Structures are given as structure tokens and as C-alpha cells.
Amino acid sequence: MIQALTETTMQCGTPPPTMQLPSDQVRLPPYKLASRMSRPESTVVHVGHVAVGGPEFVVIAGPCSVESKDQLLATAEQVKRAGAGILRGGAFKPRSSPYSFQGLEEEGLKLLKLARETTGLPVVTEVMDSSDVPLVEAYADILQVGSRNSQNFSLLKRVGKSTKPVLLKRGLMTTVEEFLLSAEYILASGNDQVIMCERGIRTFETATRNTLDLSAVPILKEKTHLPIIVDPSHAVGEARYVAPMARAALAAGADGIMVEVHVNPEKALCDGDQSLTPEVFGRMVDDLRPMARLFRKRI
Ligand code: PEP
Ligand code: MN
């Protein structure tokens, strides 16, 4: 521990390399509560019967957005059969264009509740605005803070007051340290149930929608006790690249993945190009199972 802390201090230029730091001068990083120095044991976030951050490699799956009862229930049943432990689906959608489908809002939340009742899967859904937190937390098991809101500090403080766990996505342009500081806002407001999600960052590369920063996974595992999952769907933007990056996420040490699945991707109202069919999703999870055992995880 002291050695690690001394290294942190050395990066700042002081003290000289030969000097040993007395333990009372140990300095925590700016993300104090999220830091593994303040809590060496890993945090496990419990959602229903699912534990994120333990020996389970958690698979979260579902459509980008909730579109209809039939679409959601059919997807939910099929992802459950394939091995998903948590259902995802957006009711409030952050779209680049104001003319794109914005989500079913409360109607979508009701459908998510229905899907939980019929499948038993806990649900995660995005909350975009502080004023919507009471509504979304009345229906959701996990509150998602999306990439675009990753540094919306008033929203982070508000979900920090919630009793529901938070799935925090990395901002499109945030560094690992800024990502940790976003998590710190939630912890500092009183909610220690935070799952971090690497979903790709914006780089000069245009071959994929974003660039999946897989190295963030072992770095975050070292720097924080919070669980870290990977969303390969929003990182790559195309269905055929999702499975390889899901396997890579498992190999890199992630605690799980979040993947978009749609019963009919061609007709999806949002992110159809990156959505897997339930069949392809099922094959991907089957391929992940033996790999998970190799890494002492289970699906
Ligand atoms: C999503 O998961 O539905 C989403 C909008 O992702 P992101 O915030 O990572 O773009
Ligand atoms: Mn999406």
C-alpha cells in the first residue's frame, strides 16, 4: 500500500525517489470513496438474485429502447432463456436528433415492470433528468446514467440520494480519472451501489462507432473497488463486432457485459445496426460460458 501511495506522490514530482513516505502522509486520490485504497475489498452490487462484482459474469441484455409490449416481452423471454441475468431497455432515450424516437417514457417504464413480473429479471433503464428520478426509481431496479450525462453533476448527486443501484456509463470524452470522479459524486451523496460501464470513447477512429477502451477495465479494477462492466454494443456500433468484444471484455477482467438485443433489428426504432438477434445473442453467451470458467467466473 505505502509503495503504491509513494508512486502516486512521485508522479507529482515530490518527494525525491529515495525518500519513504510515513504512513500519516498517505494521500488518497481525488476519488477518495471510490478508491481501492479506502476500501480494498471489491464492492458487490446486489440486484434481486444477481450479484454484480462477484464470481458471476453478469449478462445484461435487451433492446436499446422499449418499443411495445410484444417487442419487450418477446426479447425479455428470449434473453432470459439464453442466460441473461438482467434486462435492459430505454424508456427515456438520449437521441442526437430531436426528431428521432425519444422513448415511451412512463409507458415504457410500465412495460419494463411487466417484463420483470413475467420473467423475474431485474431491469435497468436510463434516467436522463434529475426531476425524473422519483418516477424512474419507482419502476427500475437499477438506474442508468448514460454517457451523455456522465458529467451531469446535479443528476449524479440526485441518483446518489436514491436507494437503487446506479449503472454509470463512461462519458464519450471522459478520462478514466474523470469517470472515477463521476462515480465519486454518487458515492459522496450517499449511494455506494455503483456499477461502472465502459462503453467506448470518441477517438479519431471511424471504423467503429466509438473506440472500446478495454485497457480501462484492468485499470479500473486496480483503482476502484466498484464493479466494472463493458457495453460492446455502443462501442462498436455494428452487430458483427459485438461478440468478439464481449469475449475480450471477459478476458480483460470485466464483471459483466451489457448487450443490445432486438427481436427484429431491422425494424428497431433505435440502434438496430448494433442489435443482436436473440439467436445470435444465445450463441454468443454459449461461447462465453467455457471462457468464463477458464477465468474462474460463471454465467
Ligand atoms: C444506452 O445504453 O441505451 C445508451 C444510450 O448508451 P450510451 O449512454 O452509452 O450512449
Ligand atoms: Mn442504444
Q: What can you tell me about this protein's structure?
A:
- The chain has helices spanning 2-11, 69-82, 106-119, 133-139, 153-159, 176-188, 216-223, 232-236, 242-252, 278-294, and strands at residues 45-47, 50-52, 58-62, 86-88, 123-126, 142-145, 166-169, 194-198, 228-230, 256-260.
- Helix 2 packs parallel to helix 3, helix 2 runs parallel beside helix 10 (278-294) and helix 5 (153-159) packs across helix 6.
- The protein is globular, with a radius of gyration of 19 Å.
- 35% of the residues lie in helices and 13% in strands.
- The chain contains ten helices and ten strands.
- Helix 4 links the parallel strand 5 (123-126) and strand 6 (142-145).
- It has an eight-stranded parallel β-barrel, surrounded by seven helices. A two-stranded antiparallel sheet has the order 1-2.
- The longest helix has 17 residues, at 278-294.
- The protein has one domain (43-291): Aldolase class I (TIM Barrel, Alpha-Beta Barrel).
- By secondary structure, the protein is of the alpha/beta class.
- Bound molecules: phosphoenolpyruvate and manganese (II) ion (MN).
